[in-house]
Target: DUF2024 domain-containing protein
Amino acid sequence: MSQIHVFDTYARSASGKIMHFDVVLPENDPEKALACAREWLKSIGEEHAVVNAENCAYCHSEPQAPAEMQKDIETKGYAIYKMEGCPR
Model:
């Protein structure tokens, strides 16, 4: 994998909690980043969380992903870097 692209993302859960995370992709594709954010939220039981294009924005690119993220990208097509308010 040559380069990764990071999308800074905020979502609001149904209970009002803010979750801050990065969606990491092998391509710079804002629509895919938003779809992946929604897929991940559903996978953690937050299918009713609100996330939109304004809250899932391209941030920067890196030459490569850390090993654990690279594995997720290879298997799922994306990786999530959890920050504030995300389940561990």
The chain has a mean pLDDT of 95.
